[in-house]
Specification:
The structure is a single chain. With 196 residues, the chain is mainly beta. The strands form three sheets. Strands 1, 2, 3, 4, 5, 6, 7, 8, 9, 10 and 11 form an eleven-stranded mixed sheet that branches. A three-stranded mixed sheet has the order 13-16-15, with helices on one face. The chain has a two-stranded antiparallel ribbon with strand order 12-14. The protein starts with a strand and ends with a strand.
C-alpha cells in the first residue's frame, strides 16, 4: 500500500499477502518505525502483545520486545490512537511518547529523534543508564553483553555511530567511563576498570 517499515534487530513483523478493504493490519514483535501511506477509508493498525496503534497516515515508532518490561509508541507526525492491553485508549500528538511499564501508562513530550535514530544507524543518549544502553547495543549487534558492578546506573549523554563495529562502539563508551571489556567467544563482559 506504499507504507514504509524499518525493522530494528530481533524484530518480527507479520502481515497478510493482501490487506482487506476495511483495515490494513500488521503484527509486530520488537521495534519498528512506520511511515504509513495515507488512506482515510482504510485505517492502518499495528498490533503487539500489549498495544494496538490505529492510524490513517503518519510516522511513528513502536517498541514491544517480549523480554522488556516497557512498551512504547513515539509519534513523529500525524496522530495515532493507542489502545493499551485492550482497555485504555490514548490519542498521541507529534513529539509525544506513550510508555507502559507494568501497569503504569504515561504520555510525555520528547525529542523523537532519540527514539528513532536507530533506523539511521545511530544511538543518542540523554541520561540513559549504561545497562539500558548496553541492552540496546546487545540487541542491535545481536551479541550478548553482560555488565556487573557499579556501572549499571552510570548515566550517558551523547551519541554513537552504529556503522562502527561493536568493539569500536564499546571502546568509545570506555573513553567516557573507565571500564574493562572482556570478550569470551560470542559474549562480552563489562566490569569497572580496576585502578592501577
Amino acid at each position: 500500500d506504499g507504507t514504509l517499515v524499518y525493522l530494528n534487530s530481533m524484530t518480527k513483523i507479520r502481515f497478510p499477502e493482501r490487506f482487506s478493504e476495511k483495515c490494513r493490519e500488521v503484527e509486530v514483535c520488537g521495534e519498528a518505525f512506520f511511515e504509513v501511506a495515507e488512506n482515510k477509508r482504510v485505517p492502518f493498525v499495528v498490533k503487539t502483545d500489549r498495544l494496538e496503534v490505529t492510524v490513517l497516515g503518519t510516522s511513528f515508532n513502536v517498541t514491544d520486545y517480549v523480554k522488556d518490561t516497557e512498551t512504547a509508541v513515539v509519534l513523529v507526525q500525524g496522530s495515532v490512537d493507542v489502545t493499551v492491553d485492550n482497555k485504555e485508549k490514548k490519542r498521541l500528538l507529534p513529539n509525544q511518547r506513550l510508555s507502559k511499564v507494568n501497569s503504569a501508562v504515561k504520555v510525555n513530550e520528547v525529542d523523537v529523534y532519540n527514539y528513532i535514530c536507530w533506523k539511521d544507524d545511530a544511538m543518542n543518549f540523554d541520561g540513559q543508564r549504561l545497562s539500558d544502553v548496553l541492552k540496546s547495543l546487545s540487541r542491535y549487534y545481536d551479541t550478548k553483553i553482560e555488565i556487573s558492578g557499579s556501572l549499571k546506573d552510570e548515566k550517558y549523554y551523547g551519541s554513537l555511530d552504529l556503522n562502527c563495529t561493536l568493539d569500536e562502539v564499546l571502546e568509545s563508551i570506555s573513553l567516557a567511563t573507565p571500564l574493562s571489556i572482556i570478550r569470551q567467544g560470542d559474549e562480552i563482559y563489562i566490569t569497572p576498570e580496576k585502578s592501577k
